[in-house]
TrEMBL record:
Residues 1-20 form the signal peptide. Residues 43-70 are annotated as: Disordered. GO terms for biological process: cell wall organization; peptidoglycan-protein cross-linking; regulation of cell shape. Residues 72-201 form the L,D-TPase catalytic domain. GO terms for molecular function: glycosyltransferase activity; peptidoglycan L,D-transpeptidase activity. It comes from the Bacteria. The keyword Signal applies. It holds the Pfam family YkuD. Keywords: Cell shape, Cell wall biogenesis/degradation, Glycosyltransferase, Hydrolase, Peptidoglycan synthesis, Signal, Transferase. PROSITE patterns: LD_TPASE (PS52029). GO terms for cellular component: extracellular region. This is L,D-transpeptidase. Pathway: Cell wall biogenesis; peptidoglycan biosynthesis.
Length: 202
C-alpha cells in the first residue's frame, strides 16, 4: 500500500513538473552593446520607437514616481544644442550638448535601450579604413571619445555620451551622437533608465 502511495505521488509530481516552464533571466539589453553589427556613428537612422496605443498607461505611471522608474522623457532640441530631461513628475533638467554635423543629424522618436558605465569605444571598420591610426579598442580613460558614461538609443545606433573634447559642446561636431559635459552626462545617467522616451527635434 505504501508503495502505491509513493508511486502515485511520484506520478503527480512528474505531471506537475512537465507542465512547468522555466525561463532564463532576460539579458536582451546586452545585445545592444555588441559591436558586431551596430555602428554608433552610422548614417542610417535608428528604427522608430512604436508609440503606445491611445489611452495606454504602463503600470509604472500609476505608482508613486521615483528616480528609479523608467518614466520621463528626453527632448533634444538640435538647433538650440540643448537636451532637456523631464521626469515623470514634471521636474526638468536642461543641459548644453554637441549634436551631429550637417548631414549627420537624425530627427524622430526613439528610446533608451541600455546604459554603460565607463564604456569602451570601438571604431567601426569604415572609421579605421579612413584613419588607419585608430586602434581597435579605446579603453576607458581621458582619451576615450565616449567619456565616462554612454546612454544607448535605438539598438545602439545613436548614443548620448560624455566626451574627451568639451570644447565641442554647443556645436555641430559629432557623426550623429549627442555629447555632454562629464558632470552633466553623469547626472543624466543616474536618472534615466532603459525605456525612457527620447524625442529629437530640429
Amino acid at each position: 500500500m505504501r508503495l502505491l502511495v509513493l508511486l502515485a505521488a511520484a506520478l503527480f509530481l512528474m505531471a506537475v513538473h512537465a507542465q512547468a516552464q522555466v525561463y532564463a533571466p532576460y539579458d536582451g539589453y546586452d545585445e545592444y552593446d555588441g559591436y558586431g553589427y551596430n555602428d554608433p556613428y552610422s548614417p542610417y537612422p535608428p528604427p522608430l520607437y512604436d508609440e503606445p496605443e491611445p489611452g495606454y498607461r504602463p503600470l509604472q505611471e500609476r505608482r508613486e514616481p521615483s528616480t528609479r522608474s523608467a518614466g520621463g522623457t528626453i527632448t533634444i532640441a538640435t538647433r538650440e544644442h540643448t537636451l532637456i530631461y523631464t521626469t515623470s513628475w514634471g521636474e526638468q533638467f536642461a543641459y548644453p550638448i554637441a549634436v551631429g554635423r550637417e548631414g549627420k543629424q537624425w530627427y524622430g522618436t526613439t528610446r533608451v535601450v541600455s546604459k554603460r558605465l565607463h564604456p569602451e569605444w570601438r571604431p567601426t571598420a569604415s572609421m579605421r579604413q579612413k584613419n588607419p591610426r585608430l586602434p581597435a579598442v579605446v579603453k576607458p580613460g581621458p582619451a576615450n571619445p565616449l567619456g565616462t558614461r554612454a546612454i544607448y538609443l535605438a539598438d545602439g545606433l545613436l548614443r548620448i555620451h560624455g566626451t574627451n573634447d568639451p570644447t565641442s559642446i554647443g556645436t555641430n561636431a559629432s557623426s550623429g551622437c549627442f555629447r555632454m559635459y562629464r558632470e552633466d552626462v553623469e547626472e543624466l545617467y543616474d536618472m534615466v533608465q532603459p525605456g525612457t522616451r527620447v524625442i529629437v527635434q530640429r
